[in-house]
Amino acid sequence: MKQFARLVVLRLLILFACLYWLEVQKRPAPIDALPAAPRAGRTPAQAAASLLIFDDDEDGYRAWIAANESGYVINTPKGDGGSTPDILHRASCASISSPRIQNYTTSDFKKIAAADKAPLVAWLGENSEDWRPCGRCKP
Ligand SMILES: [Zn+2]
Fold first, then answer.
1. Which of 36, 123, 126, 138 is the most exposed place for a label (fewest CB within 10 A)?
2. What spacing in Å lies between the alpha carbon of 91 and ligand 1's midpoint?
């Protein structure tokens, strides 16, 4: 009889252990274990990742504007830029893509390019004290 009682206690212990384990499984996962909720639009990091900077890279710049005629380019002074404003252009704008000019990125200016206008406007909002859209290509 004593052995039977031990067996019952042992089975009850196993049963409670199983019930406890099932209860633990039902608890919601901690917040950091949940997948991130989808976000509308792009994060600043994603927007920055879509920008290309051409600084002392004429060949790379030429190749990019040739392959991205519907893209956009910011002409921005190197260094602090003084009072020179940043100008947003279409990649097809003659003032930033003339074959007669060979120092678009090697003189006092560099170019920031993107296939879409939005990340460039976001960049200007964060980094530029003075910018304007080009009056020639009207981006
Ligand atoms: Zn322009």
1. 36
2. 8
